[in-house]
Amino acid sequence: MLDILVVGGAGYIGSYMCKYLSKQGYQPVVLDNLVYGHREAVKWGPLFEGSMSDTALLDHIFSTHQIGAVMHFAAFCHVGESVTAPAKYYQNNVAATITLLEQMQRNNVSDFIFSSSCATYGEPVEIPITEAHPQQPINPYGKTKLMVEQILEDFETAYGIRSICLRYFNAAGADPETELGEDHDPETHLIPLAIQTALGQRELCIFGDDYPTQDGTCIRDYIHIDDLAQAHLLALERLFSDMPGGRYNLGNGDGYSVKEVIETVARIAGKAIPVKIAERRAGDPAVLIGSSQKAMKELGWNPRFDDLRTIIETAWKWHRTHPIGYGH
User: Does domain 3-172+222-250 have CATH number 3.40.50.720?
Assistant: First the structure.
């Protein structure tokens, strides 16, 4: 059984990736500092608690496990915080990633799957966004993701580390078996915020209802974590087959407005969801929808959870059975 180092494997997407890898016959080995991840979400392999900037810990992991590839889910990802605390983001998302890549090189591990982001594109100049869209990020978070993509190009040229970067749109949903789900503190994602409001746990705010869209609220492209995991596995196996790396969008190609998401949660929950309207947030584009045709063609990616209601139903079941997250 080949070991896969999953950095950030105690987090929302990383933990589900570990479950997915285990079902496919791989052994996930998790490195996570547990700043945002949850020890309770690590069930399919060993957990090493620490940072990807800890060279001694990385050497120990590489020397005690037969690591075949590395998957990187360990970025800090709050856009607003990246603006007010950019040093934190450049240190973790860029500098620590370089340390991880250097340790891979030292230990002769050459395959790397990177969780990138549609935030590398910045303000869209065309919809849907393809991989050829200009990359002009407008916040430090997006800049760190683009920097790592560029660093990976140089590391492949210089050191032979091959990579596939997967540019997510809006990750959503939960484990269909309700074993894993979204538990952030603070929570910033719309679907869990709407569900928590339906459960009476918080109030919900819409930031701007005067956008040039059908109902005045922002439109986003939601992608289920199971489909993200499928894409990561296909990317991994592409590198294992000695095929070239690449850069791929991961989205459903359909956009849903903030109000449409809230209305869908309300129908599933069987109750109205009260909302407050606030001013727009700076840097929120009216529409973000991605084209994933390249991933479908080159990776053979075939999303299974491709409608909003199905995505939200999995999240609803998780929150109903885990009303305070992993604290149960």
Answer: yes
**Domain limits, CATH 3.90.25.10, in the chain:** 190-220+253-327
Best CA proximity match to 314, nearest among 305, 302, 323, 324: 305
pLDDT digits (tens, 9 = 90+) for 172-205: 999 999 999 999 988 999 999 999 999 999 999 9
Give the Cα-Cα-Cα angle 265, 82, 200 (nearest 5 degrees).
25
Number of H helices, E strands in the chain: 11, 14
Class for the domain spanning 190-220+253-327: alpha beta
d(CA 13, CA 63): 26
- Distance of alpha carbon 36 from alpha carbon 84, whole angstroms: 18
Model pLDDT for residues 108-147, shown as the tens digit of each residue: 999 999 999 999 999 999 999 999 999 999 999 999 999 9
pTM, to two decimals = 0.96
91's CB contacts (< 8 A; 6+ apart) are none
Provide the H-helix boundaries in the chain: 12-23, 55-64, 79-84, 86-89, 96-106, 140-159, 190-198, 225-240, 258-269, 293-298, 308-321
Task: Mark whether 141 is an active-site residue.
Answer: yes
Burial class (CB in 10 A: 0-12, 13-18, 19+), 65: middle
Residue from 89, 121, 141, 256 carrying the catalytic annotation: 141
